[in-house]
């Protein structure tokens, strides 16, 4: 195969892999399919990703990182922690729901990939709880939230809202009333964090 005129980068390979996964699904997608989509040999892909498993883990991490990056901006904002917490939880819910609703085939593919890539998922969950910890800590320092352990509190908030971001609940995200349920859970958590 003739190389394409563009330089082959890891990012281009990951973009092509996502398209191949969308078309073929995780069971049938191969490195040869990715190489074919790029117009290069499969050896060229392997120079960037040593194994098929490494490529699948990288594309999974890239997909998960999109959510983390969208949320990190909220964490960095200089405003009241309660508003940031509410916006962070809302943005997480909307991002996951959008992924599930806008491209259900790719969402199903990534659900399979995340099941096989514990490292990428573990890092993603650690990053999300670290972001939440920063917000909770800021709330404790400002006197808005009562907690002696921001990290444990952040983990509890994350787990308490799992129904609105864990992919195993994706089918519930479009049900009537889910918005009200989400708001009720967040309101309850915020009242508990205020401690007054």
The backbone outline, from C-alpha atoms, is: elongated
CATH topology of the largest domain: Tetracycline Repressor, domain 2
Biggest sheet, in brief?
A: none
Written as H for each helix and E for each strand, in order along the chain, the element string is HHHHHHHHH
Tell me the name of the CATH homologous superfamily of the largest domain: Tetracycline Repressor, domain 2
- How many discrete domains? 2
Annotation, overall tally of beta strands: 0
Strand content: under 5%
Radius of gyration: 20 Å
How would you characterize this protein structure?
The chain is an all-alpha fold and 196 residues long. It has helices spanning 10-28, 31-38, 42-48, 52-76, 81-102, 104-116, 118-142, 150-160, 178-194. α1 (10-28) crosses α4, α2 (31-38) crosses α3 (42-48) and α7 packs across α8 (150-160). It comes from Streptomyces viridiviolaceus. Residues 7-67 form the HTH tetR-type domain. This is TetR family transcriptional regulator. Keywords: DNA-binding, Transcription, Transcription regulation.
Any descriptors?
disordered N terminus; Arc Repressor Mutant, subunit A; mainly alpha; 9 helices; elongated; single chain
List the SSEs and their pairings.
Blueprint (H helix, E strand, L loop, with lengths): L9 H19 L2 H8 L3 H7 L3 H25 L4 H22 L1 H13 L1 H25 L7 H11 L17 H17 L2
Helix pairs in contact: 1-2, 1-4, 1-6, 2-3, 4-5, 4-6, 4-7, 5-6, 5-7, 7-8
Keywords: DNA-binding, Transcription, Transcription regulation
Organism: Streptomyces viridiviolaceus
Protein name: TetR family transcriptional regulator
